[in-house]
Specification:
The chain has 337 residues and is α+β, with helices and mostly antiparallel strands. Helices cover 22% and strands 30% of the residues. The chain has 2 domains: 28 residues; 303 residues, Deoxyribonuclease I, Chain A (4-Layer Sandwich), CATH 3.60.10. It has a 7-stranded mixed beta sheet. The protein has a 6-stranded mixed beta sheet with strand order 6-7-8-9-11-10, with helices on one face.
């Protein structure tokens, strides 16, 4: 009888410890009020006003390169080298606006470096963070235990040389098929809606990082994005960009729904000659996009930028544009509309 008693006690202790760990590990580090924040850095002056502007979207993969979710050793030097490569290229490109997905703010997996802050120091006075992953301890990759992500505070960032006047953090539909214990550690999929004051215009950016593993959920998220886009694109310059995790060559590809939007084009996108963005080592899929409304924005040039090499497992997309003065008409006389 004693052996059964001791066995029962051990099992109960194990259960209590497991539940305790689960509740602690899946709990957040931050308060909800810290999930969407706009920053203004104390720099000497704002960017000058020109006629052309550049915007870049980049799933930075928390600077883990091709190792990303793999259960392999990730030395601090890997992140330092990748950060230096990113900073060097960003200096050369000198974009006015940057949109990053999978950027870490304070995560054990990337040695607790605030990657947003490091990039903003290039001269981006204005920035907006939207946290989409906040867990005290993420036990992934599952094995070996030494490869666990640990504490994760990560998300989506917009960095700008022009004032950010508004931000809205919109949580998109979750994959309902995920078991509860998995979903408790899973990230939020977001639409980060940011309004930027550029050259007298309120430029709306709808910045996204969509579901990667479930197609039905991703399609529902894209439908939601279409409704968000519809609120803005008729009224003023609107750009929807980010990692859509959908290649037009996929069966029943959700990204095809974006092609149905009227008065809207996709930068550096030619269906007959696709420029791929994933993976950065040997790109075979187009997952990252910049969509813009042609009534208010005119594309000057666009490209998938390969010079970032394997700093991330994705490659960025760059758009150079100007505001379409011919179509802007009376809207430009009331830019706060």
């Amino acid at each position: 009888m004693k052996i059964f008693k001791y066995t029962f006690l051990v099992l109960m202790m194990f259960l209590v410890l497991t539940i305790g760990f689960y509740l602690w590990a899946s709990s957040p580090n931050l308060s909800p009020s810290e999930y969407a924040v706009i920053y203004e850095a104390p720099v000497e002056k704002d960017a000058g006003i020109g006629d052309e502007f550049r915007i870049l979207t980049y799933n930075i993969g928390y600077l883990s390169g091709m190792t990303n979710n793999l259960p392999v050793e990730k030395p601090e030097s890997l992140f330092e080298n990748n950060m230096n490569r990113v900073l060097d290229n960003l200096k050369l490109i000198d974009a006015d606006l940057l949109a990053f997905q999978e950027i870490d703010y304070d995560s054990d997996r990337s040695y607790n470096i605030d990657q947003h802050e490091a990039i903003a120091a290039l001269g981006y006075r204005y920035s907006a963070k939207s946290v989409n992953w906040d867990k005290r301890y993420v036990p992934f990759p599952y094995y070996p235990f030494s490869m666990h992500f640990g504490k994760v505070i990560s998300g989506q960032s917009v960095l700008s040389k022009y004032p950010i006047v508004e931000q809205e953090r919109i949580e998109l539909e979750r994959n309902q098929a995920n078991p509860f214990y998995y979903d408790s550690f899973y990230l939020d999929r977001l639409a980060q809606v940011v309004k930027v004051r550029v050259a007298g215009h309120n430029l709306v950016l709808i910045h996204v990082h969509l579901e990667a593993f479930d197609q039905a959920t991703r399609i529902n998220q894209i439908e939601k994005l279409r409704s968000i886009y519809a609120k803005y694109y008729k009224e003023g310059p609107t750009i929807m960009l980010g990692d859509f995790n959908s290649d037009p060559r996929f069966e029943n590809a959700g990204i095809a729904l974006m092609g149905e939007l009227i008065h809207t084009e996709s930068a550096a996108f030619d269906r007959s000659d696709l420029q791929n963005t994933y993976s950065s080592r040997e790109p075979t899929e187009r997952l990252d996009y910049i969509f813009y409304n042609t009534d208010f924005i005119e594309e000057i040039s666009a490209e998938v930028v390969s010079e970032f090499d394997e700093a991330s497992d994705h490659l960025p997309v760059l758009l150079t544009f100007k505001f379409n003065s011919k179509k802007y008409g009376t809207a430009s006389t009331n830019p706060d509309t």
